[in-house]
Amino acid sequence: MKKQETIFLSNNHIKFFIILLISIAAFISCGEAQKPAVGQEDEIIVFADSTEFYNLENSLLTVFGKIIYTPQPENLFVLTRKDISELEKYRTRKNIIMIAPLNSGSDVSKYINGMLSGDVKNLINSDSITVINKYDLWARNQLLMIITAPTIEKLNQKILSEHENLLHYFQKISDERLFQSLYNEKFERKDIEAKFLKEYGWMIYVQSDFYLALEKPEDNFVWLRRSPGTDMERWIFVHWIDNASPTMLNRDSIYTIRNKVTSRYYRSSDDASHVEISDDYKTTLEVNFLGRYSLMTQGLWRMNDGSMGGPFINYTFYDQPTKRIYMLDGSIYAPKYYKKKLIQQVDVILQSFLTEREVKKEVKEDLMKQLK
Q1: Which of 299, 286, 288, 307 is nearest to 351 (CA)?
Q2: What's the rounded mean pLDDT across residues 247-254?
Q3: What domain range is 272 assigned to?
Q4: Which of 31, 96, 121, 204 is the most buried (most CB within 10 A)?
Q5: How far apart are CA 176 and CA 129, in angstroms?
């Protein structure tokens, strides 16, 4: 009778063997129709060794745990560390980070090594790259970000030096997912979009539950509102200045223009008070907005009598072909709720803005049918 062989594996070998099987199954499943990624938009699952995560956590929180005030303090993203042995359970989440020094010997480091080619590993070891993004690897509309470097010290340095890019990648894919969930042609207010395009030379996506609250052609101003008179209002306005100069694109001008517009049109029902920019927590940054140089202003608005307030986001840019300054602005009034997700929704709508020359011919023809 043939003697039966028994193979004994250490706990570490068993764990790594399980991870390897998960990896093989995952890559085989890539050929199948992918399901949408799941989870909260603001949660990032972090696969990291517990000791390595302890040494990297402060740097990661500095980047991804950034606090915004709405006016309640809210974190942009929430980090949840998981052991790599739990990969099968969490691999279809929307946002994933795998992080470890490239050759530390931890299970996450071994996993990262198995995912990268020799050429990529050489670039990492030579300090040429640190971040590798993989999209739709295990689920649709998913971002898996691999962050690695030769040492834990280098890894901390790179996280902090690359903080704007790291945050941008997750914000961008989150905005794309959100727009897909918001956009529904069946409930689109094409009549309003067509009116804007024909009369003013631009368009913006209008959801069915927004309505045209105010239109002042003489002041180049339109105001869209959602759920007025409730405890969850959303306001969007578009204001433009003809025959403008790009020299007007500066922080002080933006504050002045916005306050002038809101003091005129964002007023209480008794006309006794108006909206203005609060001095608390306001920031203005240079950004690329739809391929244009733009100033993005975020902060809090308030009634000048202190009776109400909330967050706003504003993009102001110069459009060279039309020689216009455009100001696109979204505000939230929702005193009983956290507002981070709501302000992201109006932000995504602002990013649907197009000038007439940017509207595809077939889209324009379809919209113009709404006016017949």
Answers
A1: 288
A2: 94
A3: 185-371
A4: 96
A5: 26
Work out the average pLDDT over 220-226.
Answer: 97
CATH number at residue 314: 3.40.1000.10
Instruction: Confirm whether 204 is domain-assigned.
Output: yes
Residue-wise pLDDT tens digits, 8-31? 333 444 444 444 444 444 444 444
Q: Which of 148, 181, 214 delimits the end of a domain?
A: 181
The answer to whether the beta carbons of residues 43 and 78 sit under 8 Å apart is yes
- Position 23 scores a pLDDT of 47
Whose tokens are 């295990």? That residue is 138
